């Protein structure tokens, strides 16, 4: 009987050590500073620029995560994994300068230098100075309201273990991918900042939850009839009535894409699909 008690005590001690290591290690990752310098970007104030900023923010899925009107919301909540809760944009903007907002959008870095999580910086980093300035201009027009989410980000034991293991990586990214203005190739540009947040260009993949399958972007889009592709991106209805997350994103975000933008996206991805076998 005594050896059983000792064994249980040793097991409890081991579990406690693991918990402390996971908590302390993940907390270090969460609080770690990232030396990404601030960059000044011109912020327009005219109504047309603000309206375009609101549209680009929708295409880039900012409003899909932070709420249709930037009010914030809970994307996911589980006692073991944690709570993913993008905050109200007006509340965040009130604490940050324009340059700090630009850095948060492009590089996933908080005001204090720590990293954001579940922020698609690898895609948003492609936004031009012109467009990120328009998005900031739109954010500056938002006001706190009674429907703003009060939820905050938190991490459960499994969530912290994933952070420590690098399976839920920090979004902080120092890469400079942007250009001063929108490039001539709008198809590649929109695909880079909007589509590649979820898809890989030539390979099938999965979302950060590890279970949601995501098809390779180039061959999928290249195979679509142009009219059917427009219907998919506007209504979420493609080869079948429901495409899961894609249908949701189409109805909430991509429906504002113009015909020339969709045509440019498909032309770019057709070219990529044709070049893929030689890669």
From TrEMBL:
Gene3D superfamilies recorded: Cytochrome c-like domain
Highest taxon in the source lineage: Bacteria
Alphabetic keyword roster: Electron transport, Heme, Iron, Metal-binding, Transport
InterPro entries, per the entry: Cyt_c-like_dom, Cyt_c-like_dom_sf, Cytochrome_c550/c551-like
Protein name: C-type cytochrome
Domain Cytochrome c: from-to ranges: 48-143, 182-273
GO molecular function, one term: metal ion binding
Organism annotation: Sphingomonas gei
Pfam families per the UniProt record, alphabetical: Cytochrom_C (PF00034), Cytochrome_CBB3 (PF13442)
């Amino acid at each position: 009987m005594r050896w059983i008690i000792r064994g249980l005590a040793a097991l409890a001690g081991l579990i406690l050590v693991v918990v402390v290591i996971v908590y302390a290690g993940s907390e270090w990752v969460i609080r770690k500073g990232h030396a990404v310098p601030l960059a000044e970007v011109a912020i327009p104030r005219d109504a047309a620029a603000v309206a375009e900023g609101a549209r680009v923010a929708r295409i880039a899925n900012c409003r899909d995560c932070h709420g249709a009107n930037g009010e914030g919301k809970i994307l996911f909540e589980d006692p073991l994994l944690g709570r993913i809760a993008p905050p109200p944009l007006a509340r965040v903007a009130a604490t940050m300068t324009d340059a700090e907002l630009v850095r948060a959008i492009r590089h996933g870095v908080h005001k204090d230098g720590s990293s954001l999580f579940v922020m698609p910086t690898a895609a948003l980093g492609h936004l031009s100075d012109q467009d990120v300035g328009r998005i900031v201009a739109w954010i500056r027009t938002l006001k706190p309201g009674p429907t703003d989410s009060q939820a905050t980000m938190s991490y459960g034991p499994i969530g912290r273990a994933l952070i420590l293991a690098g399976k839920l990586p920090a979004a902080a990214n120092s890469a400079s991918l942007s250009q001063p203005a929108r490039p001539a190739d709008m198809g590649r540009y929109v695909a880079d900042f909007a589509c590649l947040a979820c898809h890989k260009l030539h390979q099938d993949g999965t979302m950060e939850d590890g279970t949601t399958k995501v098809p390779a972007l180039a061959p999928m889009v290249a195979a679509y009839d142009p009219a059917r592709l427009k219907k998919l991106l506007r209504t979420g209805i493609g080869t079948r009535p429901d495409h899961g997350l894609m249908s949701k994103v189409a109805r909430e975000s991509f429906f504002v894409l113009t015909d020339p933008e969709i045509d440019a996206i498909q032309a770019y991805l057709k070219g990529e699909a044709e070049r893929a076998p030689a890669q």
